[in-house]
Amino acid sequence: MREIHKIIGRIFFLGMAGYSFLFVPVYAEESVWNKTDDSILNPLAITVYKNPTCGCCSDWVKHLKQYQFQVKTIDLANMSSIKRELGVPQHLQSCHTAVVNGYVIEGHVPAMDIRQLVEQKSPHLGLAVPHMPIGSPGMEMGEDKEPFKVIAFDKNGDTETVKEYNEESF
Question: What is the pLDDT of residues 116-133, one digit of tens each?
Fold first, then answer.
């Protein structure tokens, strides 16, 4: 049914006063990260520290809300102090930092990976997706996608890759 609507909506001619007008509606693509039945998820409180002018941070917050996170945002002009205070290793740093159930989340970590960290009561300090990869939650840019890793880290700065995303897993 959706395909029929796309076909009908893509090209629609309207004859008016001897002229034909071509209307080609633009469709916003659904995020590849919106694949869950959020009615089965328990709400989970998270505090997100972000720069007030960062659009991708706001998009990541929207992603979290779609997965039943209750988000409190704190805008900071200087993010480096909170990252240092929370123990985020410098080589894993990205644009925003969050805290959920005592865990630190750095960058565009998918919501389900955060939920898994909390539910499994991981011994790690947190998770990171460094360097703002295109295609990660909040960094969607149409069909463009870069492979990325979700990296767990501990208070000593030791790291471990816990999940890898590539074009097949998006």
Answer: 999 999 999 999 999 999
What are the pLDDT digits (tens) for 131-161?
999 999 999 998 889 999 999 999 999 999 9
115, 105 Cβ separation under 8 angstroms: no
Whole-angstrom Cα distance, residue 29 to residue 93? 29
> Under a CB-based contact definition with an 8 Å cutoff, are residues 132 and 56 in contact?
yes
The pTM of this model reads 0.77
Q: Any idea what DSSP says for residue 141?
A: B
- Which domains does the chain carry? 40-165 (3.40.30.10)
User: Would you say 106 and 97 are in contact if contact means Cβ atoms under 8 Å apart?
Assistant: yes
